[in-house]
Amino acid sequence: MSAATAAPAGPVAGLGGSAPRGRGVVAVVVLAVALLGAALLAGQPDDVNEAALDPRSVAPDGARGLVLVLRELDASIEVLRTVPGDDVDTALVLQDRSDVDGRDALLGWVRRGGVLVVTDPGSRLAPGGDDAPCPAALDGLDAIDTGTGLVGPTDGAGCYDGFVRVEVVGEGTIVGLRSPEPLLNRSLARGDGAALGAALLAPVPGTRVAVVEAVGGGGETALLDLIAPRVGQALLQLVVAAALYALWRARRLGRPVAEPQPVAVAGSELVAAVGRLLDRQGRPEEAAATLRSSLVRRLESRLGVAHGTPSSVLGAAVAGPSGLPADRCAAALGERPVPDEATLVAVAADLDHIRRSVLG
Predict the structure, then answer these.
(1) How far apart are CA 290 and CA 272, in angstroms?
(2) Distance (Å) of CA 343 to CA 5, 258, 283, 285, 319
């Protein structure tokens, strides 16, 4: 019998990066996170955001441009979530988020002589009627951008074809616009949008103006709106950093490296090697038992007989395919004693003949 052979170990395409390259990846990740943090923290000023209809927003649908125009006219501007005081001359509601009690409080402020401009057509504060004439403060103004085109002060019925409506409440006045479009950043420069806002809110220098966001417990503020902008930016930075770290850890960049393969030894060669080892130790009976047990298990599986079938029955089953007498097959498979090396050689030869004849 030949000695046991080991399959040659070949290279396997593993992924392993060198230490300098790994440090380079870490440096890139750290730099990206640092740049992102600097960009977020250096973002917009605290008094500027991108919310729609917000007097602090510089977005196209924001109203910061109107605030700047009014300040150029020496008007003082404040953003409130309460009812304006009696020292406030005019108030603006871009989007009505107040509850019922808050609206009643605003109406009470108007009755005491305040001027309220409402640009939310769905608000209960908005005046009704389309045929009211334009207030004297709008005399001399040209067309304004209503979102669907420029409309002149005398187009159609009413003021600006019903776009501007006026209602007297007590000693004060409510001016309603069908849309906030003329007062938004994107429309101030089209037509007389800026002049319309100035005429309604700051007709004279020194006017005190309040932009009312919401009064009372109503409104549309969500839970996320209560999170400070800096907190949200910090959370976003942590999410991006975690994503970059996961991406870096998920893939190891580098050249394929050779990895040693485990030694592959065929089962039959292992049995033969054990048999030779026992033979060298002067134990032929144990060597024969090792050779027989391996072949018997394979024959039982191939022939479909139960485990532990007597050698005589198994020998009779393999006698035909092997061409050996049944008693000789039975002796080789377990009935023949093996007291010395010569008998071990003979038994091993018969077992090898049976294995090649029956198992192929």
Answers:
(1) 8
(2) 27, 48, 12, 9, 20
Pairing of β 144-145 and β 150-151: antiparallel
User: DSSP state, 191?
Assistant: B
What are the backbone angles phi and psi of residue 5, rounded to the nearest 5°?
A: -110, 150
CA separation for the pair 107, 114 (Å, rounded): 9
Bridge partner list, 168: 173
Q: Decide: pTM greater than 0.70.
A: no
Q: Is 295 helix (H, G, I), strand (E, B) or coil?
A: helix
- 63 and 51 Cβ atoms separated by less than 8 Å: no
Distance in angstroms (rounded) separating the CA atoms of residues 347 and 334: 9
Beta bridge partners of 208: 76
**Contact of 158 with 116, CB cutoff 8 Å:** no
Looking up tokens 């730099």 gives 31
| Three-state secondary structure call for residue 210 | strand
Q: How far apart are CA 210 and CA 76, in angstroms?
A: 8
Kindly state the DSSP code that residue 325 receives in the 8-state scheme: -
Strand partners, 80: 212
pLDDT at residue 293 in the model: 83
Secondary-structure breakdown of the chain: helix, strand, coil percentages, each rounded to the nearest 5: 45, 10, 45
- Do the beta carbons of residue 293 and residue 346 sit within 8 Å? no
Task: Identify the H or E element spanning 15.
Answer: strand 14-15
Q: Is the pLDDT of residue 246 over 70?
A: yes
First-to-last C-alpha distance (Å) of the chain: 18
Tokens of 290: 């090792």
Residue ranges with strand state E in 64-163: 76-80, 90-93, 115-118, 144-145, 150-151
Residues 6+ apart with CB under 8 A from 104: none
Beta strands in 153-274 (DSSP E): 164-169, 172-177, 208-212, 256-257
Structure tokens at 338: 């093996």
DSSP designation for 225: G
Q: Which of 43-47, 114-118, 240-244 has the highest mean pLDDT?
A: 114-118
